[in-house]
C-alpha cells in the first residue's frame, strides 16, 4: 500500500486528494495544513459551509474517513516550514512513497522540494495561474530537475510582498485577495490533471516518465500570452548544472560540522 | 527556511554564498571588501562601492527566507531623492514578473554577490542621474 504525503488542502489541494484517495493502492495519507476553513473559502472549496471555523486538516480527515474508513490518515496541523514540527514532517516524508504539493507560496514549494530531494522521493506539483487562465502540473524525481531549475526555466517570479496572516480569532472575517481568484472550474480542471499525473506516477514510481516534466494547460485565450484556450503544452525541463538549489557542492560538509564551519566562516568574514 | 538556523540555510551559506563572497573579497582593497554581520535571523553584508567619483556605504540584508526572499539593499550614505529609491534608502532592484532576467530575482541563479553587483549598477545610474537628470536604464518591464 502506498503512503501519500500531501501539503496543502485548500481549494486546489483538496480535489487532488479527493481524487487520489479513491485509488485503493493508497493506504496511508499524511496531510500538512495549518489553516482554518473560512467563509471566503466556501465559494471554491469542496468542504461545506457548515465546516467554516474548523481546521481544514480535521475536516479533510473526516471527509476521507467518510469515503475510505480503512484509510490511515495522519494530520499535521502546522506550516510546512515550522521548525518546531520539522522532526515530525521529516519522519513522515521518510516513510512516504510519493509527495503531492498543493502549497501556494514559492517559499513552501522550495521547502517541499528540498524535503523530497533530501529523502529521495518523487513528487508532483499543481499550480493554477492567477485568474484561472490555465495551470501547470510538474513532476519531480530524485536526481532530476529541482523546483529551482523549473522556476528558473519558466522565469518564475518569487513573492516579495508580505501577506497578512489570517486572523484566527475571526474566522468569518473578510480576507483581502492577493491575486485574481481562479474560478472553481479552473481549479478543478488543473486539480484533475494533477491527480491524474500523480496516479500514473503511483503505477510505476521508479520508472515513471510521461514524456514531459511540466504540463501547461491553457484555459483561456490571453493576448500576448496564450494564443488559444484549452491547449496543452508538454515541456521537458532539464536539470540545470548551475542551479544553486540542487547542484552538487564543491565540498561536502557533514551535518554535525555545519555549525562550526558557519561560525568560522562568519568570524573570518566579520573582520574583512 | 531560516538562513542561519536551519540545515538548508546553513548549507546555502557555506556552499554558495560564503565562497562567492570570499572570491569577491580576494585581492580587493580592504575598505571595499564585504563584511558579514549576523543580526538575529538576518545576515547583513556591509560594504563600500565606488562606481564613479563617490564612495557609498551599503548594507544588503539576507532575510530569514533568503534566497526565496530576495535580498534587500539600502545605501547608508545620504542620497538625494531619486527614481528607483524606496523608503529608508532601499534600492528598487527587483521587479518580479519582469521579462528582463537581471531585474527578476532568481534564487536558483543568483547569489548575494549578484545583489552587490546590482547595487553597483544602481549607483552608477544614480551618479548619471545626478549629473543629467535622466536615469540611464529603462524601467524594468
Please render the helix and strand layout as text:
The complex is a heterodimer of chains A (about 270) and B (about 140).
Chain A: E1 2-7, H1 13-20, E2 26-32, H2 56-67, E3 72-76, H3 86-95, E4 98-101, H4 106-119, E5 123-128, E6 134-140, H5 147-153, H6 184-203, E7 214-218, E8 232-235, H7 258-270
Parallel strand pairs in A: 1-2, 1-4, 2-3, 4-5
Antiparallel strand pairs in A: 5-6, 6-7, 7-8
Chain B: H1 7-25, E1 35-39, E2 42-49, E3 56-62, E4 72-75, E5 85-86, E6 90-91, H2 112-132
Antiparallel strand pairs in B: 1-2, 2-3, 3-4, 5-6
Structure description:
The complex is a heterodimer of chains A (272) and B (141). Chain A has 272 residues and is an alpha/beta fold. Chain A has a single domain, classed as NAD(P)-binding Rossmann-like Domain (Rossmann fold, 3-Layer(aba) Sandwich). In chain A, 31% of the residues lie in helices and 16% in strands. Chain A has an eight-stranded mixed sheet with strand order 3-2-1-4-5-6-7-8, sandwiched between helices. In chain A, α1 packs across α6. Chain A is globular, with a radius of gyration of 19 Å. Chain B has one domain: Ubiquitin Conjugating Enzyme. Chain B is of the alpha+beta class and 141 residues long. Chain B has a four-stranded antiparallel sheet, with helices on one face. Chain B has a two-stranded antiparallel ribbon with strand order 5-6. Chain B is globular, with a radius of gyration of 15 Å. In chain B, a hairpin with a 3-residue loop joins β5 and β6. The mean pLDDT of chain B is 91. Chain B starts with 6 loop residues before the first helix and ends in a 9-residue tail after the last helix. Classes of the chains: A alpha/beta (272), B alpha+beta (141). Chains A and B meet through α4, α5 and α7 of A and α1 and β1 of B.
Amino acid at each position: 500500500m502506498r503512503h501519500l504525503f500531501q501539503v496543502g488542502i485548500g481549494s486546489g489541494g483538496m480535489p487532488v486528494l479527493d481524487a487520489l484517495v479513491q485509488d485503493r493502492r493508497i493506504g496511508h495519507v499524511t496531510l500538512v495544513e495549518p489553516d482554518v476553513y473560512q467563509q471566503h473559502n466556501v465559494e471554491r472549496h469542496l468542504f461545506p459551509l457548515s465546516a467554516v471555523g474548523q481546521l481544514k486538516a480535521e475536516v479533510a480527515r473526516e471527509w476521507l474517513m467518510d469515503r475510505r474508513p480503512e484509510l490511515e490518515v495522519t494530520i499535521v496541523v502546522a506550516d510546512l516550514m515550522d521548525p518546531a514540527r520539522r522532526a515530525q514532517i521529516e519522519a513522515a516524508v521518510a516513510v512516504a512513497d510519493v509527495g503531492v504539493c498543493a502549497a501556494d507560496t514559492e517559499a513552501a514549494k522550495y521547502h517541499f522540494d528540498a524535503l523530497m530531494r533530501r529523502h529521495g522521493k518523487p513528487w508532483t506539483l499543481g499550480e493554477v495561474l492567477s485568474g484561472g487562465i490555465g495551470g501547470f502540473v510538474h513532476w519531480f524525481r530524485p536526481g532530476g530537475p529541482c523546483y529551482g531549475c523549473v522556476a528558473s526555466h519558466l522565469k518564475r517570479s518569487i513573492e516579495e510582498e508580505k501577506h497578512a496572516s489570517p486572523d484566527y480569532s475571526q474566522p468569518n472575517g473578510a480576507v483581502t485577495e492577493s491575486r485574481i481568484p481562479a474560478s472553481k472550474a479552473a481549479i478543478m480542471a488543473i486539480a484533475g490533471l494533477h491527480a491524474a499525473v500523480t496516479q500514473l506516477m503511483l503505477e510505476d514510481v521508479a520508472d515513471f516518465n510521461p514524456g514531459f516534466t511540466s504540463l501547461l494547460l491553457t484555459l483561456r485565450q490571453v493576448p500576448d500570452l496564450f494564443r488559444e484556450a484549452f491547449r496543452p503544452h508538454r515541456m521537458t525541463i532539464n536539470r540545470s548544472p548551475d542551479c544553486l538549489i540542487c547542484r552538487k557542492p564543491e565540498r561536502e560538509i557533514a551535518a554535525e560540522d555545519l555549525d562550526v564551519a558557519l561560525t568560522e566562516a562568519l568570524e573570518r568574514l566579520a573582520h574583512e | 527556511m531560516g538562513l542561519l538556523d536551519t540545515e538548508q540555510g546553513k548549507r546555502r551559506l557555506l556552499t554558495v554564498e560564503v565562497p562567492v563572497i570570499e572570491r569577491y573579497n580576494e585581492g580587493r582593497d580592504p575598505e571595499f571588501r564585504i563584511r558579514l554581520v549576523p543580526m538575529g535571523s538576518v545576515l547583513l553584508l556591509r560594504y563600500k562601492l565606488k562606481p564613479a567619483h563617490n564612495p557609498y556605504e551599503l548594507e544588503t540584508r539576507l532575510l530569514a527566507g533568503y534566497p526565496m526572499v530576495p535580498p534587500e539593499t539600502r545605501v547608508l550614505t545620504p542620497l538625494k531623492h531619486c527614481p528607483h529609491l524606496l523608503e529608508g534608502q532601499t534600492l528598487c532592484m527587483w521587479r518580479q514578473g519582469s521579462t528582463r532576467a537581471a531585474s527578476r530575482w532568481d534564487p536558483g541563479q543568483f547569489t548575494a554577490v549578484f545583489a552587490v553587483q546590482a547595487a553597483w549598477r544602481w549607483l552608477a545610474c544614480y551618479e548619471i542621474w545626478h549629473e543629467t537628470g535622466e536615469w540611464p536604464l529603462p524601467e524594468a518591464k
